[in-house]
Write a structure and sequence with these properties.
The chain is of the alpha/beta class and 253 residues long. It contains eight helices and 15 strands.
């Protein structure tokens, strides 16, 4: 132990758990030129949403015939487009070995928490479980909702990492609201709303006036251009059905 530690001087840092919203890129196969073309097309649909976002490469549905994935090419392509690859989810032993060689974090796949993956990255599943199954206020009770009474202004981000988010005011353009559960906006929703950020596909978004730049549930998203044909500027609920976001007027829900 160093003299600094024993003398009672405050340490230079602390390690704390953190809940961070991340996007997963579900890779089915990899072709270098096609990958960048499709990535740029996706980014062009919502450039503000993807700029400088952390990204996880999910290999759970990867159908490539070989295991020699070039993670350095994937990382380089994403960086050129201002996206930062930070880890890999799932994959076989060879793919995870290559990912480790590219200095990527290793995360277990859904329902794939085997001993190999736990050895690779023991802390990750514990952290995910702690966030997704936060302590409740009583036996069987859900986590309490976070309630916001003031308008969410442009540039602000409001985060409910353990339950629902209830906003009793407008969400302005350029603002972002995120929740592990449902999002309720008792006013116009003009910014970005991301519900079910830890993968809860049953999460929903409710608002009094749909004017959003982007909405997302469990990683599935639609941008404003896709939303304007259905329920635009009216009271709606948004839910996930068969991997598609469905907008329904509240008076018909």
């Amino acid at each position: 132990m160093s003299d600094t530690a024993t003398s009672g001087v405050k340490q230079g840092f602390q390690l704390k758990s953190a809940s961070v919203s991340m996007t997963a890129l579900e890779l089915y196969y990899f072709d270098d030129s096609e990958f960048e073309e499709v990535l740029r097309d996706k980014i062009s649909q919502a450039p503000g949403f993807f700029k400088d976002t952390p990204l996880i490469i999910s290999l759970e549905k990867y159908q490539g015939l070989d295991s020699e994935l070039d993670f350095f090419k994937i990382i380089g392509t994403c960086r050129r487009n201002h996206i930062h690859v930070i880890g890999v989810r799932g994959g076989n032993d060879d793919q995870r070995r290559l990912a480790r060689g590219a200095a990527l974090a290793l995360l277990p796949g859904s329902g794939q928490r085997d001993r190999t993956h736990e050895t690779d990255q023991p802390a990750a599943p514990e952290t995910e479980a702690a966030v997704a199954q936060a302590p409740s206020t009583g036996a069987g009770d859900p986590p309490p909702a976070r309630i916001i009474t003031q308008p969410v202004r442009s540039g602000q981000q409001i985060h409910a990492p353990e339950g629902d988010l209830v906003i009793l005011a407008p969400v302005q353009a350029g603002a972002e609201v995120l929740a592990a559960g449902n999002i309720h906006v008792y006013g116009p929703l003009r910014g970005r709303a991301l519900a079910g950020i830890h993968g809860a596909e049953s999460a929903r978004i409710f608002c009094q006036s749909l004017e959003a730049e982007l909405v997302s549930i469990a990683g599935h998203y639609k941008i404003s251009e896709d939303l304007q044909d259905n329920g635009w500027k009216s009271a709606v609920q948004i839910q996930l059905r068969d991997d598609l976001l469905v907008v329904t007027p509240l008076d018909k829900a």
